[in-house]
Amino acid sequence: MIRRKHNGIRPQDIVVLLKLIVDSDTKYTQLQLAADLAISLSEVSESLERSKFSGLLSDDKQTVNRQALLDIIIYSIQYIFPVKPLGFVKGMPTAHSYTGFESQFLSEQKYVWPHAEGTAIGLEVQPLYPNQAEAAKKDEELYKILAAIDMIRLGRKREQKFGKEMVSTIILGSLV
Prior knowledge:
- The chain is mainly alpha-helical.
- The protein is about 50% helix and about 10% strand.
- The protein contains seven helices and three strands, in the order ααααβββααα.
- The protein has helices at about 10-20, 30-35, 40-55, 65-80, 130-140, 140-155, 155-175; strands at about 90-95, 110-115, 120-125.
- Helix 5 (about 130-140) crosses helix 6.
- The longest helix is centred in the C-terminal third of the chain and has 17 residues, at about 155-175.
- The relative contact order is 0.16.
């Protein structure tokens, strides 16, 4: 058996693990994950292997090490997957512009993931992987946690605190 060199976690690995968490009552196949996340089957397979190797996923590739994932998101996501808003584009609202969060924050500035079918114009925020907006359209809970992560990645202290609390609630709260 030929083993590939482990080159660390990639941004889409975070999203794959989050999908497993938000749909924890579903036993996923790799084919289902690929379809739900709009990524190739080989990318899903490689992602699950990287996550298993790093201790973020059980040997059966169904159980996420929630505390370890939460630690990565809370303490380092803004450093390992930083983002700087680009020019104005049409897209899906994210960070404090996400529909469920915008009432918590007064801001004239909107942030969006670029998407042709988007509902808002705002500063472009590069998602963790190219088809993230497609996956978020299919799953509101995934969309919510990804928007909260963007608050951590690009927000000020107050937004980051809110994002961290939201992510913690979703990741640890779904244990019950």
